[in-house]
Automatic annotation (TrEMBL):
This is Sugar kinase, ribokinase. Belongs to the carbohydrate kinase PfkB family. Residues 8-300 form the Carbohydrate kinase PfkB domain. Keywords: Kinase, Transferase. The lineage of its organism: Bacteria, Bacillati, Actinomycetota, Actinomycetes, Pseudonocardiales.
Amino acid sequence: MTGTGLLAFGEALAVFSTQSGKLRHATSVDVGIAGSEAMVAIGVARLGVPAAWAGRLGADEPGALVLARLREESVDTSAVRTDRQAPTGLMIKDFRNVDVTRSAFYRNGSAGTRLSPEDIPEDHIRAAGVLHLSGLTPGLSDSAAKAVFGAAEFARAEGVPVSIDIDYTHALWYPEDAADILYDLVSLCDIVFVGEDAARLLGLDGTPQELAEGIAALGPEQVIIERGPRGAIAELHGSRYAVPSFPVRSIDTEGADDAFVAGYLAEFLAGASPDRRLRTAAACRAFALTVPGETTGLPDREELKLLNRPR
């Protein structure tokens, strides 16, 4: 890692998915990995920026799969902890059609839920250009929430920018449990990615621009409201920006938001302008939509040139 690189801290899972139909009818499955923070690390690495992922995995084959796939993508895993008392979390995914994809998560008692402040990779944070977190990991357990807050607080004390993708899901925790924790976490961050619904979970209301301004008032200098096919609205360093989406045929939305985040952070770490950050983010999202799978569609620099102008 160097001072220009990304450190993503949180959860990673092994994934077993079908290309079509229910798992019960499948004769074979695709094997991969998932986890918001890990996907962002892979996306950043594919764009030629140093990236690392830190978290806790089981001492099992799914954990070995996660490590192997990350290392194949040139993601630094030297700060990963191995938990010999708990398994690696699993995700089972049915791909029914373009509009219907169903995912089931097996996390109870997993290594990821046992993430704790002891796992905070202080040396890696100190050397990073950005610490990236997600709003999913604090919902895994009390100890995971403490680990995320501890990492954010340590990064701030060291002068390292903190990024978070709120990415709230009902599958992990109730809105009333999540709201206060995520609100406090946002106040520790410099860069915030959030959808409109998750922004309202923080007690805000109004237009996307008003939501961005409301979150910026909590402290972050860079706030990006992700609007899916409608593009994104951003409040960056006190200025307003908007970026449309690219015209592509959507095949699988899984991982598209992580791709957006990866594109933005890669350009931020490369010192690009706000306009360039947002355009690359939108392009990365478009690529992720065009093929099934969490990581398959994440582009490299050459592929970014293939897209038409955003609409």
